[in-house]
Design a protein that fits this description.
alpha+beta; elongated; 2 strands
């Protein structure tokens, strides 16, 4: 098992930094089919989003 230095322990006690993300726009929409308990099928369009996008810090501070 590895050993941690004193600096690592201090970092664990530090206040967590808040990371801001930008609003995402859907890449596309896909058709999904859901089967209801009575056997009928419901077709809906579901938006597909990218995983995430971090807010550009240079724009946020300026």
């Amino acid at each position: 098992m590895g050993q941690r230095g004193k600096g690592t322990a201090r970092n664990l006690d530090a206040q967590p930094m808040q990371i801001e993300g930008e609003r995402l726009k859907p890449i596309r929409k896909v058709m999904r089919e859901l089967e209801r308990p009575d056997g009928t099928i419901l077709r809906i369009k579901v938006p597909v989003y990218p995983p995430f996008k971090l807010k550009d810090r240079s724009k946020a501070k300026g």
